[in-house]
Amino acid sequence: MLTKTDNTLVEIMLEFVRSAVFEREPVIPNNEIIDWDKMMDMALEHGLLGWVYDGIFSLSENGQIPRQQFISWGLSAQEQTSQYFRQQEFLDNMIKVCDNNDMKLLLLKGISLSEYYPKPSSRLSCDIDIYLFGDYEKGNRLLLDGDVNLAEKHYVYNKGGIQVENHIWLIDMGTPLQRKVEDYLESTLNSCVRTEDGYYVLPSKSLVVYLLMHLLAHLNNPQNDPIKIKSIIDFGMVLKTINADIMDEIKSIIFKFDLSRSYMLFVELAEWALSFDLSRYKFFEFESKDIQSALQLILDENLRHPTYIQSPKYKEMFKRWSHYKQIRWRYKYLPTMERKRVLFFMNDYLHDLVKSLLGMSPKDSIGSKFKTGRSRI
Fold this sequence. Notes:
- By secondary structure, the protein is of the alpha+beta class.
- It has 4 domains: 65 residues, no CATH class; 102 residues, 2-Layer Sandwich (Beta Polymerase, domain 2); 103 residues, no CATH class; 64 residues, no CATH class.
- The protein contains 16 helices and 7 strands.
- A 5-stranded mixed sheet has the order 1-2-5-4-3. The chain has a two-stranded antiparallel ribbon with strand order 6-7.
- Helix 8 packs antiparallel against helix 9, helix 8 packs across helix 10 and helix 9 crosses helix 11.
- It is globular, with a radius of gyration of 23 Å.
- The chain starts with a helix and ends in an 8-residue tail after the last helix.
């Protein structure tokens, strides 16, 4: 569980972020004792280091941050800035190749979202996500020298510290809802806008839906791919630029795909992270207890990465069940296959219980325990 001290540290960290993205001085009590090393760990984990560094810069002048820690923050922020410009250079080269080969490059997330901030290089971008309007194989050959690996919905290029994800589809295609949303997003591609830098971006209404589906994918997999505060802030920064007429269209789309509860959860979380009034983007009143559960899942390391008791085995199974009960609130925000997801969990739970009773490793197949030795024909 998060302690009161942890919550205070998170709030101070977010105050630095807000001061950076809204270009104002941070408001930090002079007598507040700050664990700078722990804050750096949290900022790195949630992709906030560049913004936090920008926020604490003014504190270095009046001695509120120790010199050694400030230097450490500065070196890490400098490396992030350098990576941003390396990515920008690689992107510029891809755009030139596209222009010379009758191709269009749509930029997803990453560098395109950095333009919503006063200092783009302060937003962490781990990779370059691109969509080539169906020319992904041509892109692998011309943009990425064919040096790619297939990973679910995209090809991955990783060389010289630059990672590019060349998307076959815009989002995951594992559920009926995801396929419907993919069809919708593809239907809006003709409305994509070419920026001054030469890449295309999704229209605003499509971008909100795209980012929402991205956040839901993380909510669905909190252990292996947890939600980052950076992604929540991105969602809020995009929303606050949406005009009222576009907002009506977005509302219609959100309700059409039964995403209203999911959407409202992330609007509330964005309002918390930015401390910015987003009430005009809300559709209805929201259950505050689920916001607290979501924050616990986002911020509590033990909840995201539980350590199960390994011996005896029956205690491990009870521990897993207890963990499931703590995060089961998520299912009402995952709009499709809710019951099926619960059944999948129960199936895995019972499967592992049988394995533990048989003295087997979780990686073993139950069928292998009862093999007769006969070869298959």
